[in-house]
Amino acid sequence: MVQEEIRRLNVGTLLRHVHLGGSVSRAALAERMRLNRSTIMALTAELTAAGLVREELPADTGRAGRPSLVVRPESDRVYVLAFDVAVDRLVAARVTLGGITLDRREAVRPRAGADLDRVVEVLARFGRRLHRAAPPASVCVGVGASYCGMIRPGDGMVRFGPDMGWVDQAFGSELGRRLGLGLPVSVGNEAHLGALAEQQRGAGVGFQNLIYLHGDVGVGGGIIVGGKLLDGDGGYGCELGHMVVNPYNGRPCGCGSHGCLEAEVGERALLDAARRPAELSGRDAVRAVVDDAERGDPVAQDALRHVGDWLGIGVANLINLFNPGIVIFGGMLREMYPGAAPQVRARIASNVLPVARERVRLRTSALGDDATLVGAAELGFSELLANPLDVLTRTAP
Amino acid sequence: MVQEEIRRLNVGTLLRHVHLGGSVSRAALAERMRLNRSTIMALTAELTAAGLVREELPADTGRAGRPSLVVRPESDRVYVLAFDVAVDRLVAARVTLGGITLDRREAVRPRAGADLDRVVEVLARFGRRLHRAAPPASVCVGVGASYCGMIRPGDGMVRFGPDMGWVDQAFGSELGRRLGLGLPVSVGNEAHLGALAEQQRGAGVGFQNLIYLHGDVGVGGGIIVGGKLLDGDGGYGCELGHMVVNPYNGRPCGCGSHGCLEAEVGERALLDAARRPAELSGRDAVRAVVDDAERGDPVAQDALRHVGDWLGIGVANLINLFNPGIVIFGGMLREMYPGAAPQVRARIASNVLPVARERVRLRTSALGDDATLVGAAELGFSELLANPLDVLTRTAP
């Protein structure tokens, strides 16, 4: 590793602290980065000159003596566009350095198949409007998108989008072309991005080993191992929804197999267990089961217990494999989990080796339905954070 | 990151290349480490002065011009002691920098319970003899041990050793005390160490995402994610043997649960499926089933197919979760796998999402029964490789 790489690494790390912390004193930065104050000053000066941060006196600390200057992100000036293609909606947002969503557009997405052209058209229109509405001196440093399917990391190709029947659709490059901003679009799987978002700004802050389960029609997963998203050789890891838990009596799964976790705990499994008509679907239908169970309806309570047992088997397997500090339930599972928690805890107690479950926490998503959008924004910022000075030079207004 | 850390990192990285490569030219080191030749020369000079490497002219290259000097590990001078507590044997070895096993001792371990005192006594006696037999000018830089159970990484405490019924036994510190070399003993789980060994010196060289399944009485796992061993929050991850694959009709497992992967594919499952008497056990009994199947015995063939189907379900789940480049079958599974491969491949084809299985390879262990011992030696070298100059100063003869 050479000197220039270290400087770049340090500049990026400092900007990341400020981006995630919002406002961090020079003293705190020196401590967290294990660097002396003069190095922090030099790094901050570079980022200030690039228009990425500014320094100011903190609000009155009530202490005597000279206060340490705080470093803030230039939230008025630097932003990304973030997109979310979820099972039931299309969202676009302008998100600042520092993570504030300043503006957003949203459309309902019909569940029936929608082709690439139609989806990209809606998102690109939203994106162009958000970009035009941004203040004149501001600069868009990246574009991130979340998609409910398997994504090739390099170019945002949707390899498999079961929900809309997409196979090998050039989503990322097509959205980039139609936005016309001259910026590439980074695309990630929604559950991967939800996991990153929860770790950076949600229920998983401070955890290095984290499992995020994202329920909608299916069940996706984002798994963080040693502080980094597990992506595997091609970027297609974390498919915990297709872990088979019920191989011989399992419900059929959209993937063609039987007894996958998502077949046993997804939306359809819950609605069938609650004896709802086959034509009912969607988040509202799930909510109705949860509400009925809370009101004491025994059929709905049984349905949650039944699905909760399968969920527990899946979660127990994951804890044995990953020894995580926290398991987070997001998407539809956020609503379902509280009613299923006793079964999940019972399965963990019976199926997980004691030393591997000593300290694990179970939580619902703190960011809720915005977890994936927040993750998309973070993906949009990732190149800037890796290489702040180069990226800003390229994208200067 | 500061200048001193980088130098330490670079010195360690260079020594690791030489340790794993055996003999590496300066030119190759410069290319692999992306450093210029003068930096490589300076780093090599430090390691040479410390007695860790030496430089020499390569064997005649047949080319004109001045050949690049090759850097070799000081294998005659620098070594570790490596120990392996496996289900059926106790092994100790003296392994050189560069990875050559120069001397080893081995004892049969009775399957019935053995207490800490007895196990440590045998290993410490072996270790002291190996140490005394080493050349006078040589130096022992570390001690690594592999144990078939769940290990607390910090101090080598056996948290759970199902095989011998150990709970919270201070194996690492006790072995260190009885060896009397003034060196701490690093202890790792056998399958974790098998995975590292296969990645560094076996079937998994070059793979960044690797799953190693180690079968004996049970089934352990070592999983490498992005080049690093998955350890989780406490070091207790990778317990793939306790992934439940058959929750409602499963065989009882030693852990107290039912239908764990190891209950369905471990030694007892195979022997029962092959209708062998309950008093038979051990590697020879497994080999006899495999041999009978190869000779055409239909009962033995059925048994391998039956167990192979469960193994396939487990491996398919792991591929969906980890999108690995390679899956390696070690221990008893090394012998069982060839006869079960058709079932494993069929399950992968039916249960794994196509994009996640496009490029995965299935292989048997290249290091065989020594995988865990090789891993223990690498663990013994890990502190030296992280911090070569400091460690050598402390342990100088």
TrEMBL record, chains A, B:
| Name of the protein this chain belongs to | Sugar kinase of the NBD/HSP70 family, may contain an N-terminal HTH domain
Q: Cross-referenced Pfam families, in alphabetical order?
A: ROK
Q: Which PANTHER family match?
A: BIFUNCTIONAL UDP-N-ACETYLGLUCOSAMINE 2-EPIMERASE_N-ACETYLMANNOSAMINE KINASE, ROK (REPRESSOR, ORF, KINASE) FAMILY
Keyword Nucleotidyltransferase set for record: no
- SUPFAM superfamilies attached to this UniProt entry: Actin-like ATPase domain, Winged helix' DNA-binding domain
Q: Which UniProt keywords apply?
A: Kinase, Transferase
Taxonomic lineage is: Bacteria, Bacillati, Actinomycetota, Actinomycetes, Streptosporangiales
Q: Does the keyword Transferase apply?
A: yes
**Which species does this protein come from?**
Streptosporangium canum
Q: What family does this chain come from, according to its entry?
A: Belongs to the ROK (NagC/XylR) family.
Report the superkingdom from the record: Bacteria
Q: Which GO terms describe its molecular function?
A: kinase activity
Q: Where is the signal peptide?
A: none
